[in-house]
Structures are given as structure tokens and as C-alpha cells.
Amino acid sequence: MEGWTTIMYLVSIHFLTDKIKMIDSGSPAVAIIYFNLLIFIGSYFLMNIVVAVIITSYAETKSQDDQTKKALNEDSQHISTEGSEPNESD
Fold it and tell me: Which helix (H) or strand (E) segment is 85 a member of?
């Protein structure tokens, strides 16, 4: 079982030599352009997702708040109309 790492390394290098040469022959200018585009476009989409989540959460909270205010207004109007009725005992 000794030496298996050396054999695995040699086999890997043998099969990957062509791919390594192809990767090494790439242009640094292309890599710079690719990664800059990836960063800017990726951050643009990520920012849109974050803003969409914030707007959706705000809209849901506002809707719940409006429903709560409407319910409280209806309850307060109901209570005020009950209190304004004249007493029959007077």
C-alpha cells in the first residue's frame, strides 16, 4: 500500500497533461475581462435579488399593518357608537 500517492499522481498527470497545456496557453487579457464581467454582472443580479426581497418584505409588512389599522378603526368606531347611545334608565 505504500507509494500509492506517487502512482496516483503520475496517472493523473499523464491524463491531464493535454488539459493543463490548454489551460496554460490561455490569454491573461481574456481572463481579466472574463472575471471582471463575472464580478460586475454577478453583483448586479445579486443586488437585484436583494432589493426584490426587501421590497417584497416591505409590501407584506405594509399590507399587514394596513389591515391591523383598519381592524382597530372598526373596533374603535364600534365602541364609540355603543358609548353614545342614551341610557334607558335616565
Answer: none
Cell of 74: 372598526
**In this predicted model, what pLDDT tens digit does every residue of 24-83 receive, in sequence order?**
666 778 888 888 998 999 999 999 999 999 999 999 999 998 888 888 888 777 776 665
Q: Distance between CA 33 and CA 39 in Å, rounded?
A: 10
Residue 82 CB partners (closer than 8 Å, separation 6+): none
Retrieve residue 20's grid coordinates: 493543463
Rounded CA-CA distance 18/48 in Å is 41
Output the pTM of the full model.
0.49
Q: What is the CA radius of gyration of the chain?
A: 35
